[in-house]
């Protein structure tokens, strides 16, 4: 079994969040395997739980349940490893593939320990994104595995911790896996919609988005009695429900099916390109104004941030967005970013007026500034 998706379709991995009993593992695996739609079985043996009083997994004795259930069903198996002992025990028990969890990817010491334990053993290893959206940590973990000779590596996008995020448990932040794709074009990236959703009724929509973004597969948690699951009970699905989601998912190709579609897309993309150019020009104009305002503040000893003004900007832009049928949350986030850029620019002007924004001030303002200096 390789970490690459089989054939053309997405790689499908399913199985319980945690292996709890031998019967639960066997029944889940058999129901999933019977569909012929699942390519590998997952089950957590050692569970990284946020609070110490939660179920922390059966540990090593459950490895043989997983291996035997997989063998019985003719499917490869995988589990999460967080240290060298886990790697040794999983591989000695005949588990075929490993994954590194989000709470481990975040720690280079743990990842290096796992990589060292994998020297000379070329099994497929999947690396989940770190809990917070730091792409360097995700890539660093992948590089540590490559450095010891692991040649079958895939990434798992499972979303990112967010203080308050509705409706999902973890913020998908799809842009992070898109960036990973652009940095590592040959790396298979699959999605774990279960841990993004946190609730079973969102799994289908998240899985469909992942496929529409050309991710290479899905890892979906399943349990024979989800409500009674000892971990992640709200997001686990009955095997039969996993299968019906897989049946419903639409796989859309990157290639256009015919010439008219190519032409239509071309026309629309030309317009989008034009609008994007206008957007950049508007942003540049806004930047010039921000510089002028910054200069007035500096000359008159006025603080950069005026909260009332900022709150009214946000309110005004959000209500305008609503009137125009645009998601006000999106517009709010956009203005947070634009505002951060403005504050940074004005802050640099206060310290070093010529080098504001990391580049020289625009010519007009620089001339103004120079004139002022001469006075
Ligand atoms: C899991 O897959 O059960 C798990 C603990 O995932 P994560 O590392 O994404 O939280
Ligand atoms: Mn889980």
Can you describe this structure in just a few lines?
The protein is α/β, with parallel strands linked by helices. The chain has helices spanning about 20-35, 60-75, 85-90, 100-105, 110-115, 135-145, 175-185, 195, 205-210, 240-250, 260-300, 305-325, 330-350, 365-375; strands spanning about 10-15, 40, 75-80, 95-100, 125-130, 155, 190, 215-220. It has an 8-stranded parallel beta sheet with strand order 7-6-5-4-3-2-1-8.
Mean pLDDT: 91
Secondary-structure element order, N to C? EHEHEHEHHEHEHEHHEHHHHH
Biggest sheet character: 8 strands, parallel
Radius of gyration: 26 Å
Note the topology:
Elements: E1 11-15, H1 22-34, E2 40-42, H2 61-73, E3 77-80, H3 84-92, E4 97-100, H4 102-105, H5 108-117, E5 125-128, H6 135-147, E6 153-157, H7 174-183, E7 189-191, H8 193-197, H9 203-212, E8 217-221, H10 239-248, H11 259-299, H12 307-323, H13 328-351, H14 363-374
Parallel strand pairs: 1-2, 1-8, 2-3, 3-4, 4-5, 5-6, 6-7
Bound molecules: phosphoenolpyruvate and manganese (II) ion.
């Amino acid at each position: 079994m390789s970490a690459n998706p089989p054939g053309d379709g997405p790689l499908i991995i399913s199985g319980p969040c945690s292996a709890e009993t031998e019967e639960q593992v066997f029944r889940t695996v058999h129901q999933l395997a019977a569909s012929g739609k699942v390519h590998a079985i997952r089950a957590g043996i050692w569970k990284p739980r946020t609070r110490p009083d939660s179920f922390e997994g059966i540990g090593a004795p459950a490895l043989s349940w997983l291996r035997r259930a997989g063998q019985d069903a003719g499917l490869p198996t995988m589990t999460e490893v967080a240290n060298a002992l886990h790697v040794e025990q999983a591989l000695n028990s005949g588990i075929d593939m490993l994954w590194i969890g989000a709470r481990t990817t975040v720690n280079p010491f743990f990842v290096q320990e796992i990589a060292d334990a994998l020297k000379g053993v070329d099994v497929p290893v999947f690396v989940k994104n770190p809990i917070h959206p730091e792409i360097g940590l995700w890539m660093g973990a992948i590089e540590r595995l490559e450095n010891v000779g692991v040649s079958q590596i895939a990434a798992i996008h499972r979303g990112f911790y967010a203080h308050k995020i509705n409706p999902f448990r973890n913020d998908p932040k799809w842009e992070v896996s898109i960036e990973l794709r652009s940095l590592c074009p040959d790396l298979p990236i699959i999605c774990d919609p279960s841990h993004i959703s946190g609730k079973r009724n969102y799994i289908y929509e998240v899985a469909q988005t992942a496929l529409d973004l050309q991710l290479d597969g899905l890892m979906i948690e399943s349990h024979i009695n989800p409500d009674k699951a000892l971990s992640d009970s709200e997001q686990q699905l009955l095997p039969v429900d996993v299968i019906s989601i897989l049946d419903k998912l639409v796989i859309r190709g990157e290639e256009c099916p015919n010439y008219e579609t190519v032409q239509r897309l071309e026309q629309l993309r030309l317009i989008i390109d034009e609008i994007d150019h206008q957007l950049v020009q508007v942003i540049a104009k806004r930047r010039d104004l921000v510089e002028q305002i910054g200069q007035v503040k500096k000359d008159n000893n006025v603080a950069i941030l005026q909260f009332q003004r900022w709150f009214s900007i946000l309110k005004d832009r959000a209500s305008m967005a609503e009137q125009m049928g645009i998601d006000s949350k999106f517009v709010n986030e956009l203005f947070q970013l634009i505002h951060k850029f403005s504050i940074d620019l004005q802050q640099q002007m206060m310290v070093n007026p010529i080098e504001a924004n990391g580049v020289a001030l625009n010519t007009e303002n620089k001339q103004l500034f120079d004139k002022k200096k001469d006075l």
